[in-house]
């Protein structure tokens, strides 16, 4: 087994004499049944490879692993129409496409057992969210989750049921008054935003590639939420080609201040890793190292504003062997307070197993290279810079609703 790194990290917040950190992750082979078939980008192999890598790195020793059961209709109906749930169940059983509900399309092809498989993903996220809210665990993670495109009445973008929205709805039903949802997937978190468009109790913040160049074509900085909830939808639509430092600048300049201003009791975050430059479906260029840094920042936010109550979810990510397992292994490490240094060698045992599946050139380390941190927003913005203009526009748009100064940090 590969030696685990012992380098310090801001992700490890334990102090001498404090109780042990409690972290829980959903994982069982049954989650691999969410499978759209050969050739589909969202291959369940992503999960299998990730947990195999995490095992070799020793990360699973720091996590309580639990399975997940399919959630019942009662919880699904908190975020989905009954007609849609019945349509999924029917299409799952008889294999008849239903394009009205987005079922049987190239993005969302049918497979037998679709309803149960998708409901199991929801069950995992809901159970973890409630465990975090009740104080049974400090942090929790469901890498099979993050199905942020599913709408109330239709499947969309590889997502059948919206586990993120269901998890948020579950803690609201248990008495939470403010929940912050942070979406770092390259695609706009449209389904979660739409689910809480008119709910002032939920802040949705999405950092994504502009809809001018990427599905689903939504998530503009002027989209601020519905009546009674203005300012609770925040969208950072970045230009195609945005790299690691400006992407992290967006996290520092928008995500951190708006979440702090909202002062949530729970933080739910989505860590689709398709913002990486190697991803075949997107046009951003964000390194593994930068994505790990963003995880640490979200983690630290949860401790700063929500007493550490944090649920992290997976999402997109289609560079299946070279990127997804490394990024999500980092997420498991941050959640577990056992962070992996990006200079750590990729365990040769894991690489050998991957080579048996696909003859490919795998990275040698858990990172892509030196991390270049962005200039802090407080140092001033550059009006000639495409990303800075986006960030200023976003901050100005939300300033009337949240305590965020448009220009200064």
TrEMBL record:
List the Gene3D superfamilies. Answer: Histone deacetylase domain
- Spell out where the chain crosses the membrane: none
N-terminal signal peptide: none
Q: Which UniProt keywords apply?
A: Acetoin catabolism
Residues of the Histone deacetylase domain? 40-332
What GO molecular-function term can you cite, just one? Answer: histone deacetylase activity
- Look up keyword Nucleotide-binding and say if it applies: no
Report the Pfam families cross-referenced here: Hist_deacetyl
Key word Heme present = no
Query: Where are stretches of biased composition, namely Polar residues?
Result: 1-16
Pathway noted in the entry: Ketone degradation; acetoin degradation
Region (Disordered) spans which residues? 1-22
Q: Which biological process, per GO, is one annotated for this protein? A: acetoin catabolic process
What family is reported? Belongs to the histone deacetylase family.
PANTHER family, per database record: HISTONE DEACETYLASE HDAC1, HISTONE DEACETYLASE HDAC1-RELATED
Its name, as the record gives it, is Acetoin utilization protein AcuC
């Amino acid at each position: 087994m590969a030696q685990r790194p012992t380098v310090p990290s801001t992700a490890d917040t334990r102090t001498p004499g404090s109780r042990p950190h409690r972290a829980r992750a959903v994982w069982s082979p049954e989650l691999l049944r969410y499978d759209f078939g050969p050739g589909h980008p969202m291959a369940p192999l992503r999960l299998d490879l990730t947990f195999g890598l995490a095992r070799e790195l020793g990360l699973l020793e720091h996590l309580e692993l639990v399975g997940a059961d399919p959630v019942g209709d009662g919880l699904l109906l908190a975020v989905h129409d009954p007609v849609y749930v019945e349509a999924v169940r029917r299409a799952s059983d008889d294999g008849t496409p239903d394009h009205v509900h987005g079922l049987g399309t190239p993005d969302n092809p049918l497979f037998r057992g679709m309803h149960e498989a998708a409901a199991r993903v929801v069950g995992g996220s809901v159970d973890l969210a409630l465990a975090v809210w009740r104080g049974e665990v400090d942090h929790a993670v469901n890498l099979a989750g993050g199905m942020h495109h599913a709408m109330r009445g239709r499947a969309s973008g590889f997502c059948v049921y919206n586990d993120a929205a269901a998890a948020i709805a579950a803690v609201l039903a248990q008495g939470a008054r403010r929940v912050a949802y942070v979406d770092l997937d390259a695609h706009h978190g449209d389904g979660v935003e739409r689910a809480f468009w008119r709910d002032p109790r939920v802040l949705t913040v999405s950092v994504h590639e502009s809809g001018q160049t990427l599905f689903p074509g939504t998530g503009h900085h002027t989209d601020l939420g519905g009546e009674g909830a203005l300012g609770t939808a925040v969208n950072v639509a970045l230009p195609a080609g945005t790299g690691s430092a400006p992407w992290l600048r967006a996290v520092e300049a928008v995500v951190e201040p708006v979440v702090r201003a909202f002062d949530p009791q729970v933080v739910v975050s989505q860590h689709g890793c398709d913002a990486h430059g190697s991803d075949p479906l997107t046009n951003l260029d964000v390194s593994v190292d930068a994505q790990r840094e963003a995880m640490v920042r979200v983690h630290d936010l949860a401790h700063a504003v929500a007493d550490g109550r944090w649920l992290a979810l997976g999402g997109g990510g289609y560079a299946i062997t070279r990127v997804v397992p490394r990024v999500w292994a980092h997420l498991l490490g941050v959640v577990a307070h056992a962070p992996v240094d990006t200079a750590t060698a990729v365990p040769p045992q894991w690489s050998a197993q991957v080579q048996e599946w696909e003859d490919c050139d795998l990275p040698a380390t858990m990172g892509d290279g030196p991390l270049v941190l962005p200039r802090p927003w407080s140092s001033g913005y550059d009006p000639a810079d495409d990303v800075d203009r986006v960030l200023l526009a976003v901050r100005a748009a939300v300033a009337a609703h949240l305590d965020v100064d448009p220009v200064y940090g």
